[in-house]
Amino acid sequence: MSEVIPIGADHAGFALKERLVQELRALGYEPLDLGTHSAESTDYPDFAHPVAERVERGDARRGVLLCGTGLGMAYAANRHRGVRAAVAWTPEVARLSRAHNDANVLVLPARFLTEADGLEILRTWLAEPFEGGRHARRVTKIEP
C-alpha cells in the first residue's frame, strides 16, 4: 500500500495544491485532499488543523500544506504535538528541513512559487531522509 499524504490549502494555495495532488499520485503516493476545493476565500486554520491532526495521531507520517506565504499554515500546524511544519521556498530549504529537522509537514508559500518550483520542492522534500545523529538530539529538544 502506498503512503497516504494528507494535503490541504486555503484559497491562495488552491491551484498549486491541485497540481501537487496530481504529482503525488504520479510519484506513487496516495494524496488525501482535505481541501479547499475552490479558489473562494477561506481561513487557513480550517485546513492546517486536519492535516496536522493526522500527523499528530500517527495516521500519516507526513503532510503538505499551502497558503499565500506559508506562515499561517505553519503557525497553525506547529500547534500540534509532534508536528514539525517547515515553510520551504527553495529545494535546498526543503532538503535541510528534512535532513536536519525531520520536518513532517511541508508548507509551501504558493504566492511566491511557480508551479515548477513547487513541484521541485515537493519532490526534494519527499526524497530526503532525516540524517539523525546530532540532529536527532536537537529535534527531541523541540517538544516541551
Number-wise, the strands total 5
Q: What is the element string, with H for helices and E for strands?
A: EHEHEHEHEHH
- Gyration radius over CA: 14 Å
The first-level CATH class name: Alpha Beta
Mean pLDDT: 97
| CATH topology description | Ribose 5-phosphate Isomerase B, Chain: A
Question: What can be said about this structure in brief?
Answer:
By secondary structure, the protein is of the alpha/beta class. The protein is built from 6 helices and 5 strands, in the order βαβαβαβαβαα. A 5-stranded parallel sheet has the order 2-1-3-5-4, sandwiched between helices.
Task: Describe what you observe in this structure.
The protein is of the alpha/beta class and 144 residues long. The chain has one domain (4-140): Sugar-phosphate isomerase, RpiB/LacA/LacB (Ribose 5-phosphate Isomerase B, Chain: A). It is 43% helix and 16% strand. The protein has 6 helices and 5 strands. The protein has helices at residues 14-26, 45-57, 71-77, 91-99, 115-127, 134-140; strands spanning 4-9, 30-33, 63-67, 85-87, 105-109. Helix 1 (14-26) crosses helix 5 (115-127), helix 2 packs across helix 3 and helix 4 (91-99) runs parallel beside helix 5.
